Amino acid sequence: MARVACRRSSSPKAQDRRSSSVHSRDPIPTVRKNPFSPCLLLLAFFAFVCLSFTAMGQTTDVNDVHVQPREVEKPKESPKPDPVSTANGLSARVRPLKVDVDLVLVPVTITDPMNRLVTGLDKDNFQLFEGNASQQIRTFSAEDAPVSLGVIFDSSGSMNTKMDRAKEAVIEFFKTANPQDEFFMITFNDEPDEIVDFTNSVDDIQNRLVFAVPRKRTALLDAIYMGISKMRHAKYPKKALLIISDGGDNHSRYTENEIKSLVKEADVMIYAIGIYDRYASAVEERLGPQLLSDITELTGGRAFTIDNPNDLGDVATKIGVELRNQYVLGYRPSKVVRDGKWRKIKVKLLPPKGLPPLKVYARTGYYAPAE
Predict the structure, then answer these.
(1) What is residue 97's predicted lDDT score, i.e. its pLDDT?
(2) Does the pTM exceed 0.85?
(3) Are 176 and 318 in a shared domain?
């Protein structure tokens, strides 16, 4: 800022001129000089301006410009569903009520004798039965819809020699994911632990998976219970769990029958990769393959049993691709009784001529509404 200064003349010549000028004129009345001369007033003005800018600089960043936007009337939007707070403080949006509450959706997977996926079938290639009554298929889809998916990962002590391969299998599985998918991850040993909440980032899963360390015992059934409970906050109607484990359960509070009843109600497909030692001495390890097979078949999923950890990645990729190539059949029961009881579902295939015998994987039933 330019400085302004008033210089008062003090040379002898100037004083003589003032003296002579006074004496040469007629006497005039004495007038008291104004102490606030123009120079002083000018200095005071500049000082006030400087202080004002200093004060503004103390409270406002010169690079931070705040402009009050002009209010624009926005078009009215339809009300959105209220969020519900989850146990960990995050919010999960409530799914809107379906108008067609009696529509039952049945995901179906078809494989050939070599366990390869069969795609390209039409609605006319399927028959649906509830109990013994044939049902009309009202909706049919073979599109790759977004999935809410949870990984149930065994980190018990017996996974010590298989942990690295199992982590690689998870990474391979997520390579088949779509950008819209959402994931969460639960590890388990003595007890289950949710290490990643619902996320759209595969990196979040991989970064936390690095810290999984094999130790303690195996609470597999408790981990399945936690995964099913977590799915109540899923965004998408298509939901699935992937279990990666090397043995049966030996430390859960929940029983096998309790978990089977739970998955029958849940409308969540469950897939499993079991890494088993065929010569295992522990009873729970010998029963492990059957346990996972029984649980997954109830949901329309599948259990894959392998004895070589090197096969983990290929099987995980296969499951991921299978999730993207399912048929979804929808029907409205011809006889609706709201009694809350179990309804058996049977899907039959009418394959085109020339195809070998095909295998059908679908959910086995559902619980009717109680009201």
Answers:
(1) 30
(2) no
(3) yes
